[in-house]
Amino acid sequence: MQLDFSVLFSLYSKENPAFLRQSLDSIFCQTLAPVEVILIKDGPLTDELENVISEYLMKYPMFKVIPLMKNQGLGKALNEGLKHCSCDIVARMDTDDIAKPNRFEKQIAIFEKYPDIDVISSWIEEFEGDILNISSVKKLPELHKDIFEYAKGRCPINHPVVMFKKNAVIKSGGYLHFPLFEDYYLWIRMLMNGAKFYNIQESLLYFRFSSDMFKRRGGCKYAFDELRFQNMMRHIGFISLQMFIRNITIRFMVRVLPNYIRALLYKKFLR
């Protein structure tokens, strides 16, 4: 019998209505359909976003919208969304990315074949403007033991394309507030809690990005936020002091580089 699953979105006011439409279309045109699609409205939205939501509510009975009175941030919005997901298996989706048509079919097939796995992600293709304009592919290791080691240096899961077991997420404390690192923090806690991970070795999603993303990943503020995160990993025993020093040295250098050099590093060497 096919495993049922929910899809979880979080949306806030600054997002693009056209991108939201593309993202929703990619979900409702899958070769394997979800039981429900849950969208959390993280605070008040623009009229344009509300119009898109109303249109899809009329077209798709499985589409459910949960409003939050105030903007809570991604982590808190997703925790609220998990409460409304009726299935134990939950697929995450961002409101500006585009899922490939067989994304869910491929991921559910892995859950059915390996029932002990708790988290499944895949590679993603990063594009600018149009999905024909692929600039890089973000690849990740396949097997759990390699994912565990990889996580000591970099985030081991592509969050926009992840599918996980809700009970395993809740057992590990759910999404906790850690600006810029909510998902990475969750994966570390799940790994330390014994959850099993797997990354499909092909791209199942088109990830939208721009040069602004590289600007956001630079500067002293980002560097010090990352320092706090790396220190947390050391404090809970996930990484050694030696790995902490290595990570901070490499990452601090990347954060203070000029934006165009940092962009080149991401596109050519960190993918």
TrEMBL record:
TM spans (from-to): none
Keyword Lipoprotein: no
Record's keyword terms, sorted: Glycosyltransferase, Transferase
Pfam families per record: Glycos_transf_2
InterPro entries per record: Glyco_trans_2-like (IPR001173), Glycosyltransf_2 (IPR050834), Nucleotide-diphossugar_trans (IPR029044)
Domain Glycosyltransferase 2-like: from-to ranges: 14-135
Top-level taxon in the UniProt lineage: Bacteria
A single MF term (Gene Ontology): glycosyltransferase activity
Keyword presence, Protein biosynthesis: no
Protein family per UniProt: Belongs to the glycosyltransferase 2 family.
Protein's name in the database: Glycosyl transferase family 2
